[in-house]
């Protein structure tokens, strides 16, 4: 193998490693943002669709 092909192969491996690192960091940041958004949501309970209301059932 000549030096150019070795360097080319190493450069491709480095590019792949950097791309995976950037992807991993982006996924981590998205996860942190999603968790933060969920934690910031108001914790009020949604009303039940029919519990406590009058239901007229005719037999």
TrEMBL record:
UniProt xrefs under Pfam families: YjfB_motility (PF14070)
Entry superkingdom: Bacteria
Protein name: Putative motility protein
Lineage: Bacteria, Bacillati, Bacillota, Bacilli, Bacillales
């Amino acid at each position: 193998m000549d030096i150019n092909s070795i360097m080319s192969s190493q450069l491709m491996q480095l590019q792949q490693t950097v791309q995976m690192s950037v992807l991993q960091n982006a996924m981590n940041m998205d996860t942190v943002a999603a968790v933060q958004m969920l934690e910031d949501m108001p914790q009020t309970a949604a009303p039940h669709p029919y519990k406590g209301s009058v239901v007229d059932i005719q037999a």
